[in-house]
Amino acid sequence: MAETRLAPHQKGARRSGRAIAFVDETGSSFRARVASTWAPVWHPPTLRRRDKRREVSSIVALIAPYGRKPARLYSRHREGSFTSQDIIEALRYFRRNVGRPLTIVWDGLNQHHSAETLDFVARHPEDFRLERLPGYAPDLNPEEGCNGVVKAELRNATPDSVAELRAQARASFVRLGHRHDVLAAFFLHAGLRLTELP
């Protein structure tokens, strides 16, 4: 994959003391296809899921390494889909936990660019700056790798309730957040040089 250099706005984030947060949403569902697994011969495993319609949504921020701090991962989860208000609450959560102003890099999801979200960001210019990824280019967002790992881990999960599914998704993202080498690899896979990140 060709190496990608930081765009001017990302270099500006470094000079201004902002952390770069690659943000994306993903979903966990009982409708996910099961994966191959090991079982004794003539004893295929059976997965019993209570309700195929239940879903949990996750919004995730992968924070680029800066200074001596490695890449970090933060996530929030809810039943159903995210509203603009949920996005705003997530931005507040990411800002509070990172402890620095954020340059948010994300896609063109409607809730990302709704009037409510943009009004909130406009009222907090010292805390947030928004940058939009090109359309149909998930490979440019290193956070997509995080979603893939969690989806693979939950593929054969058999939660008994939406609350349990939500807990399993949250726990999977928390575990991944401790794997700094894997998080770093997602940046390299997206063609970003870690030495150029703040």
From TrEMBL:
Gene3D superfamilies: Ribonuclease H-like superfamily/Ribonuclease H (3.30.420.10)
Transmembrane segments: none
InterPro entries listed in its UniProt record: RNaseH_sf, Tc1-like_DDE_dom
One Gene Ontology MF term: nucleic acid binding
Domain Tc1-like transposase DDE: 20-165
Protein name: Transposase
